[in-house]
Amino acid sequence: MISLKEIKKPISKEFKAFESLFHQTVKSKVPLLDIIMRYILKSKGKQMRPLFVIYSAGLFNNINQSTYIAATLIELMHTATLVHDDVVDDSFQRRGRFSINYLWKNKIAVLAGDFLLSRGMLLALENKEVGLLEIVSGAVKDMSEGELLQLEKARKLDISEDVYYEIIRKKTASLLASCFSTGAKSATDDIDSINKMHLIGEYAGMAFQIRDDLFDLQVDNKSGKPAGIDIKEKKMTLPLIYLLNNSSNSDKRKVINIVKNHKDKPEKVSWLIEEIKKSGGLDYASNKMHEFKDKALELLNGFPENQSRATLTKLIHYVIERKK
Question: Are 91 and 218 in contact (CB under 8 A)?
Fold first, then answer.
């Protein structure tokens, strides 16, 4: 499988321009905040989302300053949501390093996340990029609604497959959709093309989330057992929904009882994971993942062929075929 390093290579100059703007944007005259921002910069992840933005603009042969602003907006918003998520989930680690809330406590972590969001808004307004801000703000709204919908449904464990798709469309896919659409928006004024790019990102994001569902049920190299973290957090993933939809009423009650009352018992979680596998839940979810991926690629192939289209195709395959 192609590596992200290879994917970055053709746009190394453009990616450096984005990174320069991002580093400049998160600087602060408040010493504590500046320390936190520098810590965040050192623990950056794969930075796939800016790549999607830049190559989406490249699809229209027009990578420009507006593109770097779009990529920075996306990365600021994404980083802010990660900081806030760690507070909500009470996580002590992020990307193998201590989380902001673990090192500086929740209050400071929330304020640091707010700073990142505000810097994104100001960056867009200072550069009169209201269209980009509108797209990214829509994604923030969707992500919040998706998270709350998931929490609401986790109480009763009554998520249907349609509701599951609505949750992941908002919670996960909306961010990737905004990568594609802001990249396009920075390069063209054609509304139909921008909307089509948004839909491509949405389909890719749906596939991305189902890939995560499947990861949680795969054998962990260290423990030799599946993680089952989603079950422990009472998250209704597609494989689990499939099991419930194909179980008798008595088996369904048993499954729900484990998720509600015995999610911290390893033997119960292991039994449930085996039941998901025996039901065909993993195969079903994998097929759905590929359906969303194929929809994204079909739409993408409707655009004229160039290097950016070829690389976007590779990136979409990457998010599905990645090992973690």
Answer: no
